Amino acid sequence: MPRNDHERWQMDLEEYIRQGEPEQSEKSNAWKTAIGLQDVDGLISDRKRNFRMRVFPPVMR
After folding, report:
1. Is there a domain that residue 50 lies in?
2. Which residues form the domain of 50?
3. Of the chain's two ends, which shows fewer C-beta atoms within 10 Å, N or C?
């Protein structure tokens, strides 16, 4: 059992190395999940924010 965050991180890293790189479909699903969670939390990526600012500039008051 890991005693601290460093040991926990080390165990996770070793497990990742044993399993190898995730398949493209796994990566895609992880990204879709992360983007969905950001949407639920009301967060938007910088890329999306920059696009919105160019297309829909804020109204000057």
Report:
1. yes
2. 23-61
3. C
